[in-house]
Amino acid sequence: MKDKNTIFIILSVFIVIVAFIFVKEIVPIMNEKDCKNRVFNEMQAKSDDVIRGIVGMIGENSKDGLSSHNGIGSGVIFDKVDNTYYVVTAKHVINAVNTNFKIFTKDTEFSGQTINAGDNVNFEIPDEEYYNSLLDGKIEYISKTNDLAILSFIYDGDLTVLDFETNKLSKNNRIMVIGHPEGNRYKKTYGYIKSSLKDVRGDKVIEHNAYMKQGNSGGVALSENMKIAGINISGKFTLLGHFRSGYMIPYDIVEDNIKNWKNQE
After folding, report:
1. More confident residue, 159 or 6
2. What is the pTM for the complete model shown?
C-alpha cells in the first residue's frame, strides 16, 4: 500500500510539472508563432509612407581614438523644423553614460554581412562604411517620470512626420508595431490591445500582443489610421525568452512629455 502511495505521489508531481511546463512554455511558444505571423493586410497596405517616419539608434562609444558600436533601438519622428527631425523613443535606449548615438533611417543603405539564423531572424554585421554613413543623434529631453526620451538629428532628406492618435484606445483595437528586432530592420508586426491602462515597473502602459523583441524598445505602435498610438518600452516573456505580450506608453502620456520638453526650451 505504501509503495502505491509513493507511486501516486510521484505520478502526481510529474503531472503537475508537465502541466506547468505546458502552460508556461509550450502555450507561449504557440502564441508567439501566431503573433509573429499575424498580418493585417489593410494596415500593411498603408505602411509604405509611415515607415519613412521610423528610425533606429545605435550606441557609439569612443576611447583612445577608437569607436565601438553596440545595441540597437527604435524611434519615431513626430516633428520637423527646417532640416532637423525630432524623435521620441524609450529612455532606457539612450541612458548609457558617455555614449553618443547614431541614427539610421529608411534611406540608410546597409553594408556588411547578413547571417540568416532561421525563423525570419537575421543577424547583420555592419562594416565601417555603414557606421560612417550614420547620422549624429542629439539628446533633447529625458523624462523624469516615464521611460521616454526625445532625440534630434539633422538630415536633408525627406522623411515622414507622424501624427498622434486622437481617439481613445480600447481593448481589441488593432495596432501595427514597427521596429528593429532580432537584426531585422523595419520589421512590421500586428496585434490587438489587450488591457486598459496599468502600472508596470513605474510606468503607465497598455498591454498588447503585437510581437516584440530586443530592438523594438522605443519603437512605435500605430493605430489603424496610421497614427502614433504608443511607444513600446518593454514586454513580458517566458523564462526561456518566448514572447507573451508587449507594453506601450499610450500616446497621451507621450504628448504630455513632449509638452514638458517644449516648456523647458
Report:
1. 159
2. 0.85
150 forms bridges with which residues in the sheet?
Answer: 88, 141
* Long-range contacts at 231-238 (CB < 8 A, ≥ 24 apart): 231/76, 231/88, 231/89, 231/90, 231/148, 232/74, 232/90, 232/177, 232/179, 233/90, 233/92, 233/147, 233/148, 233/203, 233/205, 234/147, 234/200, 234/201, 234/205, 236/207, 238/24, 238/25, 238/28
To the nearest 5 percent, what fractions of the chain are helix, strand and coil? 30, 40, 30
Distances in whole angstroms, Cα of residue 63 to Cα of each of 67, 99, 128, 193: 6, 11, 16, 44
pLDDT tens for 72-105 read: 889 999 999 999 999 999 999 887 545 688 999 9
Phi-psi category of 197—alpha, beta or left, where left has phi over 0 and alpha has psi -120 to 50? beta
Q: Among the residues of the chain, which ranges form H helices?
A: 2-21, 27-37, 41-45, 47-50, 128-133, 251-264
Question: What's the Cα-to-Cα distance from 57 to each of 86, 100, 116, 206, rounded to whole Å?
Answer: 13, 10, 22, 24
State how far the Cα of 259 lies from the Cα of 84, in Å rounded to an integer. 18
Inter-residue contact 184 to 118 (CB < 8 Å): no
Look-up of cell digits 523595419? 186
DSSP secondary structure string for all residues of 147-175: S-EEEEEE--S--PPPPBP-SPP-TT-EE
